[in-house]
Amino acid sequence: MIAESTDSTPRVDPSTTSGEREALEQWLDFHRATLARKCEGLDDAQLRTLSAPPSELSLLGLVRHMAKVEQGWFRNVLAGEKAPKLYSTEEDRDRDFHVTDEDTYAEAHATWQAEIAHARTVAAARGLDDLGEGEHHSGKPYNLRWIYLHMIEEYARHNGHADLVRERIDGATGD
Which of 18, 64, 68, 91 is in the most buried spot, having the most CB atoms within 10 Å? Predict the structure, then answer.
């Protein structure tokens, strides 16, 4: 029997008639909520379950990764802050995905939500054409519009991964 996810995280379908900025923000929030829904009702051990070993992809790793991505694009590139790296170390640049028994969803979720809140704050003060004040490792400038589009793409890709991981854990499927 296939279980359905509990879907208690509020998620609003993006408007079909909104303007550009509103549409970008609505789609980004939709995808943020989708990842949260994929994690609902699972304990830490389940959230650490690997997708298909030897891959180290897990739902907990995806949440940690998206916290790191939110921080990188909004805090560091857009706002020009020099925030300390989340989860990554010099020895393990992909530590966000390399979860251990000590890593918890409570910590990862709180960190992720704090980064989302900060992202909303720094984005609200800027227009879509405004360039980020920080530097990206590519050396290229990025405007807020590009960052929004990239974040939507990043979440959409990883939500596809999350669909498969969740179904492997308990058979739950759905948006």
Answer: 64
Averaged pLDDT, 104-118: 98
Q: Please, are residues 35 and 158 in contact by the beta-carbon 8 Å criterion?
A: yes
> Per DSSP, which regions of the chain are E strands?
none
Q: Is residue 142 within 8 Å of residue 77, measured between CB atoms?
A: yes
Tokens linked to 5: 């996810």
Element at 59 (helix H, strand E):
helix 59-70
Contacts 24+ apart (CB under 8 A), 40-47: 40/5, 40/6, 40/7, 40/8, 40/9, 41/5, 41/6, 41/172, 42/105, 42/166, 42/169, 42/170, 44/103, 44/104, 44/105, 46/169, 46/170, 47/105
More confident of the two residues 127 and 85 = 127
Beta bridge partners of 42: none
The pTM of the full predicted model, rounded to 2 decimals, is 0.93
Residue 117 has pLDDT above 50, yes or no: yes
SS3 131: strand
Residues 22-39: tens digit of each pLDDT: 999 999 999 999 999 999
